Amino acid sequence: MAGYLLKGCAAVIVDEGNGPDIRCNVDVLTEGPAIRAIGAGLDNADLPVGTITQDAAGWFVYPGLVNTHHHFFQCFVRNRADLDWTKLSVIEWLDRIYPIFSRLTEECFYHASVTAMAELIKHGCTTAFDHQYCFPRQAGKRLIDRQFQAAELLGMRFHAGRGGNTLPKSEGSTIPDAMLETTDEFIADCARLIDAYHDAGPFGMRQVVVAPCQPVNCYRDTFVESVALARDRGVRMHTHVGEGESPVIEARHGMRTVDYCADIGFCGPDTFYAHCWELTHDELRKMAASGTGVAHCPEPVYLVGAEITDIPAMSAFGLSVGLGCDGAASNDNSNLMHCIHSAYMLQCLSASTRDHPVPPPADFLGYATTGGAALLGRGDIGRLAPQMAADLFAIDTRRMDYVGTRHDPLSLLAKVGIGAPTDMTMINGRIVWAKGEFPGLDEARLFAQAEAALATVEF
Q: Domain ranges in the chain?
């Protein structure tokens, strides 16, 4: 695999480890999976044999986005009026949605994953973490194997969160029996997946995260055993925390969720939680002290958040923050670039009620790049610099959409928002989306296959 010379980029967001910097009128040279150089006049240097030159005039080039929380399988329940949060209570909604999830087949999980990853890639996401916690008995245990297959098809850098639920509904969970596993089943499959797929090496395309769904739907020993396995194998941990369940956990265990997880050891620099909108400042400080990170999902806040997540406080306390789309049960798209804009605008909306100022717009791009990389424990992605992974996307700004905006590429995504797909997305040195197409793939065929799988679901 040779590489590409992106010639004459209007602006490149470069970060050599000291924060982002805008470089104008420069070239980007990739070689294999990595960035070789960024600078002016690189076409005058000795280029590797086989380098393909791409005219990048007018392009703003950004580091690839890193999605830190999603539920791909939920793509098959998007935009349904009968599942509208605004017309149902949370309990009514859960009672309606989980039986649907329990009827999904292995093929549904595969095609939903292709669907979500394709949309992510179109909008600049190059690394995706998915929290796959739904394992209906009739669908079998190879659902994450199929997700890795989908990622390979599209060229996505994929971190699989092997989730699971172990507490029956009769003991207070919201999970139908058809979706339950034992702790032993869950841990055994986590171990199998780590052995089969986890690649912790530089530019690794596959990693596994031990990710029990949430404390409210699992036995305590599920989390205890998760900690033991993850620490033994050197992989990361993830779960849902602080999305309205803390009073339930306190009633069951005598402590709120953050303290409950800390008591088990499910916290630390190798752990990140999704959501965290209901947490107190004291709880956020505890998380910061332990090094536990947050995957902030801004768009579900519109539907299910009782309040807007306090990102200014998290920033002030030094928490590691990434961004996630979340699943279609609470966000009907898989567009992480749109989440950057949503996250910033939500914080501006609530600024007058906060103790800390809204972080600058450029920080929100950082949450979706270096922040996400930190949550996933990756030092090789999330920023553009020599020797980093060639994960990037480009926007041709020579359009009416961008008149008056081009002086500040760092703030563009947060303040203006980007509505259209990228002009090019590259992952690990390979162009996976360009000129409105997935090179080598027939999108119409992928669409037809996904629609056929969706048609098998009984709503």
A: 4-64+382-434, 65-375
Q: List CB contacts of 109: < 8 A, sequence separation 6 or more.
A: 72, 73, 132, 134, 139, 143, 146, 147
Alpha carbon 443 to its chain's center: 22
pLDDT digits (tens, 9 = 90+) for 145-179: 999 999 999 999 999 999 999 999 999 998 999 99
- Tell me if 131 sits within 8 A of 163, measured CB to CB: yes
Structure tokens at 418: 């980007």
Mean pLDDT, 10 residues at a time, the chain of 459 residues: 94 97 98 97 88 98 99 92 72 79 95 98 98 96 98 98 96 92 98 98 98 97 98 98 94 98 98 97 98 96 84 98 93 96 97 95 98 98 98 98 97 96 98 98 98 91
pLDDT digits (tens, 9 = 90+) for 338-365: 999 999 999 999 999 999 999 999 999 9
Cβ atoms of residues 322 and 66 within 8 Å? yes
In terms of DSSP bridges, do strands 392-396 and 59-63 run parallel, antiparallel, or are they unpaired? antiparallel
> Domain 65-375 belongs to what topology?
TIM Barrel (3.20.20)
Tokens matching residue 87: 């017309």
Q: Which long-range contacts (CB under 8 A, 24 or more apart) does 247-252 make?
A: 248/172, 248/216, 249/215, 249/216, 252/172
Q: What is the DSSP string of 382-437?
A: SS-STTSB--EEEEE--SGGGTTTTT-HHHIIIII---SPPSEEEETTEEEEETTB
For residue 335, give Cα distances in angstroms to 128, 240, 289, 340: 11, 20, 31, 9
How many angstroms separate the CA atoms of 241 and 256, rounded? 10
How many CB atoms neighbour CB 444 within 10 A? 8
Length of the chain: 459
Q: What are phi and psi of 77, to 5 degrees?
A: -125, 40
Cβ atoms of 282 and 312 closer than 8 Å = no
- Alpha-carbon gap, residue 337 to 342, rounded angstroms: 9
Architecture of domain 4-64+382-434: Roll (2.30)
* Token duo for residue 70: 């999603």
% helix, strand, coil for the chain, step of 5: 40, 20, 40
Question: Do 150 and 206 form a contact (C-beta atoms < 8 A)?
Answer: no
Q: Helix, strand, or coil here: 311?
A: helix
Give the number of other Cβ atoms within 10 Å of residue 127's Cβ: 27
Dihedral of alpha carbons 326, 328, 330, 332, sign: positive
Nearest residue to 120 via CA among 110, 130, 128, 112: 128
245, two tokens:
């369940």
